[in-house]
C-alpha cells in the first residue's frame, strides 16, 4: 500500500510539473495577425524580351511561362514531341507559334530565352544546346540529373556567359516563402542556425507518365523533389559552402515500380548553418492538396514556420507563415505578397545581372542534391 501511495504522489507531482508551463505559457507574449501589403506590379506596354518553350512534359511549364510573362516576356514559339501536350498548350497560348523542330527556335536570333519542363534527364543537354545558340535557359526542377551533366553545364555556361536558371517553385512561387526571405534578411529571427524542409507529395499513380517511375529519367527522389529544399537551405542560411553529412533513399512501399524511390532524407552542414531535408511520396488521399509542404527556419532570436500548401488548423488556401520571436507569435497573411522571380529574371537577361538567383547558388544547390542522391545509403523496411 505504501508503495502505491508513494507512486501516486510522484506521478501527481510529475503531472503538476508538466501542467505548470501549459498554464504559464499565456504570460509569455501574445498572438497577432499581420496582413502583408501588396504593391502595384509594373505592367509593360510592349514586350521586353521574346521567349520560347521546348519540351513540356511536366505541368510546371505553365507557371514558368506565367512568371516570364509577368516580367514583360512575350511567348512567341513552342515545340514538343507529344501531340496531347501540344494540344493543351495551344489552348492556353493560342498566339504562340508551334514550330516543326527545336532548331527553328535555336536559330531564331530574336528569341532571348528558352523554357523547358522536358523529361528531367533531357533538360541539361537541351540547356547546353540553348546556351551554345546564344540564348538563356530556364529549366523546371531538377534542371540537371547527374554530376557529369552538371560538369558539362558549368563548362558551357562559363564559356558562353549565358544564364542557366532553375525555377525552384517552392521558393519562387510560394508567397509565404518569399515573405520569409524578406523577414530573415531584415533580421526578424536573428542569425539563422538551421532549416528543416519537408516535401511530401501525392503519387497519383494513374496520371503519371512512364518516365516518372524510372530513376534514370527522373534522377532519383533527392535529385528531383528535394532540389527545392537544397535551394531553400542555401538561401535562408546564406551558405556559400556546404557538405552533405548523411543521406538515405529507398523504395519502401512501391515494389511494382522497381526503378522508383518513395522516400529520401539528408542532413547538411555549411558555412552559414545546418539543414535537414525529408521528401516522400506518401501524402494520403484525405489531404485536400498534393502535399503538406513545410519549412522551418530556426534563428537565434526566433523561428519561422511556413505551411506552403495547407494549414491543418483550418485556414483556407496556402502560403501560411508563422513567426515567433521574444515578444509574440504572429501569423502573416501573405495573399498579397508579390512574386519577384519572373521580373527579376527578365531584368537579368537584359542587364546581364544576377538578381533573381546567382549562377553559383543555382549550381551549388544542384551539386548538393546530386551528391546526396549519389552517396545515399539504400534503406529497406522488412514489414
UniProtKB/TrEMBL annotation:
<dbReference type="InterPro" id="IPR000683">
    <property type="entry name" value="Gfo/Idh/MocA-like_OxRdtase_N"/>
</dbReference>
<dbReference type="InterPro" id="IPR055170">
    <property type="entry name" value="GFO_IDH_MocA-like_dom"/>
</dbReference>
<dbReference type="InterPro" id="IPR036291">
    <property type="entry name" value="NAD(P)-bd_dom_sf"/>
</dbReference>
<protein>
    <submittedName>
        <fullName>Oxidoreductase</fullName>
    </submittedName>
</protein>
<dbReference type="Pfam" id="PF01408">
    <property type="entry name" value="GFO_IDH_MocA"/>
</dbReference>
<feature type="domain" description="GFO/IDH/MocA-like oxidoreductase">
    <location>
        <begin position="179"/>
        <end position="305"/>
    </location>
</feature>
<dbReference type="Pfam" id="PF22725">
    <property type="entry name" value="GFO_IDH_MocA_C3"/>
</dbReference>
<dbReference type="GO" id="GO:0000166">
    <property type="term" value="F:nucleotide binding"/>
</dbReference>
<dbReference type="GO" id="GO:0016491">
    <property type="term" value="F:oxidoreductase activity"/>
</dbReference>
<dbReference type="InterPro" id="IPR019546">
    <property type="entry name" value="TAT_signal_bac_arc"/>
</dbReference>
<keyword id="KW-0560">Oxidoreductase</keyword>
<feature type="domain" description="Gfo/Idh/MocA-like oxidoreductase N-terminal">
    <location>
        <begin position="49"/>
        <end position="166"/>
    </location>
</feature>
<dbReference type="InterPro" id="IPR050463">
    <property type="entry name" value="Gfo/Idh/MocA_oxidrdct_glycsds"/>
</dbReference>
